[in-house]
Design a protein that fits this description.
InterPro entries: Glyas_Bleomycin-R_OHBP_Dase, Glyas_Fos-R_dOase_dom, MMCE/EMCE_epimerase, VOC_core. The protein is an alpha+beta fold. It is globular.
C-alpha cells in the first residue's frame, strides 16, 4: 500500500481590511455572533517588537501604524480585522473574474433572519435567496455585503452536505 503524504489542512483564519475597525467589530460580533478574541488595538512600525517586525516583513516600510482586532466563529475559525489609516476606504469593485479572493461563506440554517440582521445593520443583499437543489435538497444560499462592501455568501447547510451526492437523496 502506497503511503499518502498529503492530508487536508484545516482553515485557521482570514484577514479582512475594513475602513472602520470599531464598526466592523460591532457588525461582525452583533450580526454574525462572532466572539471578540482581541479588541481593536494599535500596531506600530517598530523593529524592537516581534509583532512590529513581523508586520514590517509583511507590509514593507510604507506604514507607521494600523489597527487590528481578532474575532472567532463558533467553529474556531479566526477573523482578523485590519484598518489602515492611509488605505482606500471604499471596497474594490466587485469583479469575481479576476484572480484573487472573491468571497468567504458563512453557514446559518435561518438564512432569512441573518439577511434581515445584515440589512438592519447597513449591509446589502446582492441577490434573492436561491435553492441549490429545489426539488431534492432543502439547501439555500445568498450573496450579501457587509456595510463596508465586502461580499460574502450564506449557506443554510454545510459545504460537504451541499455538494455530496448522497445528502438528502432517496
Amino acid at each position: 500500500m502506497k503511503k499518502k503524504d498529503n492530508y487536508p489542512r484545516s482553515f485557521s483564519h482570514i484577514g479582512i481590511t475594513v475602513p472602520d475597525i470599531h464598526k466592523a467589530v460591532e457588525f461582525y460580533s452583533e450580526v454574525m455572533g462572532w466572539y471578540v478574541i482581541m479588541e481593536p488595538s494599535i500596531v506600530k512600525k517598530e523593529k524592537e517588537t516581534a509583532i512590529g517586525q513581523m508586520c514590517i516583513d509583511v507590509f514593507g516600510e510604507d506604514w507607521e501604524t494600523f489597527e487590528i482586532a481578532h474575532l472567532a466563529t463558533s467553529d474556531g475559525i479566526g477573523v482578523e480585522l485590519f484598518s489602515f489609516p492611509h488605505g482606500i476606504k471604499e471596497a474594490p469593485e466587485f469583479n469575481p473574474f479576476n484572480t484573487g479572493l472573491f468571497h468567504f461563506c458563512v453557514q446559518d440554517p435561518n438564512i432569512e433572519e441573518l439577511i434581515d440582521k445584515i440589512l438592519a445593520h447597513g449591509g446589502k443583499q446582492r441577490m434573492p435567496i436561491r435553492e441549490y437543489y429545489p426539488k431534492d435538497k432543502p439547501f439555500k444560499m445568498c450573496y450579501v455585503e457587509d456595510p463596508f462592501g465586502i461580499v460574502f455568501e450564506i449557506y443554510t447547510h454545510s459545504y460537504e452536505l451541499t455538494y455530496s451526492s448522497g445528502a438528502y437523496s432517496e
